[in-house]
Amino acid sequence: MPNLIELLQVYGVLIVFAIVLVEQIGLPIPAFPILIVAGALAAGGEISLPVCLAVSIGACLISDVFWFNAGRFYGKRILRLLCKISLSPDYCVSQTEDRFKRFGPKSLMVAKFIPGFNIIASPMSGALGVSTPRFLAFSMTGSLLWSGTGIAIGVIFHNSVDKVLVMLEDMGSSALMVLLSLLALFVLYKYIERRRFRQGMQIERISMSELVQLIHGGQHPIIIDARSVTAQQLEQAVPGALIYNACTPDSVMALLDKERHIVVYCSCPNDVTAAQVAKELISKGYHRARPLHGGLDAWNAHHSGASDPQTAHAG
């Protein structure tokens, strides 16, 4: 930190490339402030603005192409993994699926400005079969907009940014401690937010073995698919399941019998969407509603060896 400005002047372009790359890969390291600082230094002629912009776009594209191919080859599995390791609450995948469904690959142009969306948008594009040229066009446009905005802010407000850098340099090692403390507080806040969300989704779940017993025992449980429309394009629904998002919740509830077991499933981490729907059903008087533990993965794993799996129909 004592030589922060000198380091940025000497290694500015490399620092920009490295930090943008690790942030785009998914690590909780904010890169936008570095772009602003780089823009301020470029305004003073200490680093090359075109080179800085080029390396930032290049770092974004490297990350985007990596996640795009991961989504293309591993599909929904890579999305679940990203949501599990994300600092955002577990509903991040379903939210991203809804946004992606609404705007399609065009959402890549603004994805980097939306926390939690950027890391999911690229693998989602690959999983949904977006063509490589189309993906690259939108990804490059988005990378240019995001990188250019950060650098442009630094150029416009370079005098103010220079003052902040001088202050940090004067603070010496204390500045490093302050920045690390702020980063730690951010990570802690996101961790607490995720734990609080999980606690709010605590509800009794039904296991796959219990569901099978209900089916074989002639209980005819009603099975509800609570996944987003985009998720339904990635994996087939359970045969006979009611599609919760096909119409309004009240229309779905009008078809349900309060005396029958209702099993809600999704394909998101920790069954959060299914838990949300089950809690809503319970609040409306459907007290036998429960989310399926493990969701669609549990169903598919159980029936992977069955040629004609038996399922419960809503009627």
Automatic annotation (TrEMBL):
One Pfam short name: VTT_dom
Key words, A-Z: Cell membrane, Membrane, Transmembrane, Transmembrane helix
Domain Rhodanese, chain residue ranges per copy: 217-308
Membrane topology designation: Multi-pass membrane protein
Domain of life: Bacteria
Predominant subcellular localization, coarse grouping: membrane
TM spans (from-to): 12-41, 47-70, 135-159, 171-192
InterPro entries in UniProt: DedA_domain, Rhodanese-like_dom, Rhodanese-like_dom_sf, VTT_dom
Localization annotation: Cell membrane
Name of protein: Sulfurtransferase
Organism in which the protein naturally occurs: Massilia frigida
